[in-house]
Design goal:
CATH class of chain B: Alpha Beta
Strand order of the largest sheet of chain B: 1-2-3-7-6
Order of helices and strands of chain A: EHEHEHEHHEHEHEEEEHEEHEHEHH
Structural class of chain B: alpha/beta
Oligomer: heterodimer
Number of strands of chain A: 14
Order of helices and strands of chain B: HHEHHEHEEEHHEHEH
CATH superfamily of chain B: Thiamin diphosphate (ThDP)-binding fold, Pyr/PP domains
Number of domains of chain B: 1
Radius of gyration of chain B: 18 Å
Bound molecules: magnesium ion
Radius of gyration of chain A: 19 Å
Number of helices of chain B: 9
Distance between the termini of chain A: 26 Å
Largest interface: A-B, 27 and 31 residues
Shape of chain A: globular
Number of helices of chain A: 12
Chain lengths: ~325, ~280
């Protein structure tokens, strides 16, 4: 099975290109940045569409407040800032000016999770799913690859309610689309079929789920299902319950704290629906995050092909 | 509306503010009485906004940053015909849309506010969008003096000057008090004029409880071409009710029945004096 394309383009770059193609056709598309056009790969956008980019400087609260004001005037506003600042520094603006006031801003959290690696916890966003999940009128999306990113941005442009989209800056190979060729915000996608165990990932953790599934198939003949649950809210309950219906183990994998994110959302659904599958949440534990690159941090916490295969074997009670 | 009519409106509005706050048993009495003359002039004299054009993208925008003085705004919006005034008898009641801060559940409200330091940035976004679309509308907000301590206001002040948003006007309801006490004792904001000017805004000062002075200022915006306008409106908390004026406990104090009738008597006397004045004053 051809799973991985050779070239690996960051989702960030795809975001920027998609935005340019949207802006070309629609003058109401606006990008608002907080000295983040370089980090957001938006320099070419600014050159091509100088009237459609608004710079507010390093002022994230103002970024979101101004974006709400622009959106309430009918502009299709993409507020772009590193996820760590966007969803913490300006959380009250997100809660009040965007979600509560129902101004359909598209909040774009760049370099999300631990993308900034060794820059440390100031630059990590391991809380964003948790805080935004608790806010009414907020859709949360973490696309896994270039395809999902481009689609998420296009669909967000047409949305009339607030949405938060977060992704990283590492090159991401395209994942297999044969089972689920389409992308729709709110509907998870099955990347790989398998009945022994289900991996549910989001964003850049779907790839290590795939790697683990490959390892488990090759070495142990274990067939894993892999789901890209790109929309954390609203949750695709139907897909999750269908995956859990065989009573086999479920492992959720997220680039986020194990508290309040994808894993707990899935656990809450399964438990309340009476599912008692073996279950494991893999994410960043509640501790001072180890230093290192994104890849090293992933490896350290078992968000890797080998780490996840190990977790799967333990849940399946298979001795290695 | 003439100056005399505006003055009469202000007295009527004050009576209604007290009526609905007393009925609800809750409200920000002092601040609603200090802001009301500003809202009166904005809605009855300056702004192009009414129930008839509220869905028109070209209407003027008002966002109340000091959301807690919502009772004053409710009374003005009801008077403008956005909703029946008797709806305000449900103020702060179970399932009423008329809660203690502005929300879009109430027709006439542009934004949901209540957290302080939010209105100015939203208005800056409105004003920038209007500039981009070539819409000749104006955007107004009223800020509380206490909320000038919010850093987000200063972010928005910087940005609005940078973009030369001269279609934006912020009015400071400068009643010199906040919930804990005098601004000067809590966290001083002086010299506020110099600070705002240093941020690149055009600033003027006005008696914020004088509808004539407010009209003169607000009808002649921008103060300076190419700069956003900041109107320091010197007001009195609890204005119009002698026992409330400048007395801290009326920040969100609710009058007892006896105090309510004393206040209404005082306003009736003011009303009588105005109606007996000769037309044309
Ligand atoms: Mg005050």
């Amino acid at each position: 099975m051809e799973m991985v394309r050779t070239e690996a383009i960051p989702n960030l770059n795809v975001f920027s290109e998609t935005l340019q193609s949207l802006a070309e056709q629609d003058r109401d598309i606006l990008v608002v940045t907080s000295d983040s056009r370089g980090s957001g790969k938006l320099v070419p956008f600014g050159v091509r569409f100088p009237e459609q980019i608004v710079e507010v400087g390093i002022a994230e609260q103002n970024l979101v407040g101004v974006s709400a004001g622009l959106a309430s005037m009918g502009k299709k506003v993409f507020a772009v800032s590193p996820a760590c600042f966007l969803t913490a520094r300006s959380l009250e603006q997100i809660k009040n000016d965007v979600a509560y006031s129902d101004n359909p801003v598209k909040l774009i959290g760049i370099s999300a999770g631990v993308s900034y690696g060794a820059l440390g916890s100031t630059h990590h966003s391991l809380h964003d799913f948790a805080v935004l999940r608790a806010i009414h009128n907020m859709t949360i999306v973490a696309p896994c690859d270039n395809f999902e990113t481009a689609e998420a941005i296009r669909q967000a442009a047409a949305m009339t309610s607030p949405v938060y989209i977060r992704f990283g800056k590492k090159g991401m190979p395209l994942l297999d689309r044969s089972l689920d060729p389409d992308f729709q915000i709110g509907k998870g996608r099955t990347i790989r079929a398998g009945d022994d165990l289900t991996f549910i990932g989001a964003g850049e953790t779907v790839l290590p789920c795939e790697t683990a599934a490959n390892l488990l198939a090759e070495k142990y003949g274990i067939k894993c299902r892999v789901i890209s649950l790109h929309t954390i809210k609203p949750l695709d309950e139907k897909l999750i319950l269908a995956a859990a219906a065989n009573d086999r183990p479920v492992i959720t994998v997220e680039e986020h704290s194990v508290h309040g994110g994808l894993g707990e959302a899935v656990a809450s659904l399964l438990f309340q629906q009476g599912c008692r599958n073996k279950f494991k949440i893999v994410g960043l534990p509640d501790e001072y995050t180890v230093s290192g690159s994104q890849t090293e941090i992933f490896d350290h916490y078992g968000i890797s092909g080998e780490g996840l295969a190990h977790t799967a074997l333990a849940l399946l009670q298979i001795k290695t | 509306m003439t100056t005399r009519e505006l003055k009469i409106k202000s007295v009527e509005y004050r009576k209604k503010i007290l009526k609905y706050i007393c009925n609800a048993g809750a409200g920000h009495t002092g601040g609603s009485l200090s802001i009301i003359d500003i809202l009166n002039v904005l809605y009855n004299r300056v702004m192009n906004v009414s129930p008839d054009n509220f869905d028109d993208p070209g209407r003027d925008r008002y966002v109340q940053s000091k959301g807690h003085s919502v009772e004053a705004l409710y009374v003005v919006l009801a008077d403008k015909g956005f909703f029946p005034e008797e709806d305000l008898l449900t103020l702060c009641r179970y399932q009423s849309p008329y809660i203690g801060h502005p929300t879009r559940k109430v027709r006439g409200m542009e934004q949901n506010t209540g957290g302080l330091g939010h209105g100015l940035a939203i208005c800056a976004g409105n004003a920038l969008a209007a500039k981009k679309d070539g819409l000749p509308l104006r955007v107004y907000t009223v800020l509380g003096d206490g909320e000038m301590a919010e850093g987000s206001n200063w972010e928005a002040l910087m940005m609005a000057a940078h973009y030369k948003l001269d279609n934006l006007c912020a009015v400071l309801d400068y009643n010199k008090q906040q919930i804990t006490g005098a601004n000067a004792d809590v966290i001083g904001l002086e010299p506020i004029r110099k600070k705002i000017e240093a941020f690149g805004w055009a600033v003027c000062e006005v008696d914020g409880n004088d509808v004539e002075a407010l009209t003169e200022t607000l009808e002649n915006l921008p103060i300076e071409q190419g700069k956003p306008s900041f109107v320091i409106a010197h007001t009195v908390k609890g204005k119009g009710i002698s026992y409330m004026e400048g007395v801290l406990k009326w920040h969100h104090g609710v009058p007892s029945p006896g105090q309510y009738y004393a206040a209404i008597n005082e306003l009736d006397t003011a009303f009588q004096a105005l109606t007996e004045e000769k037309i044309g004053v």
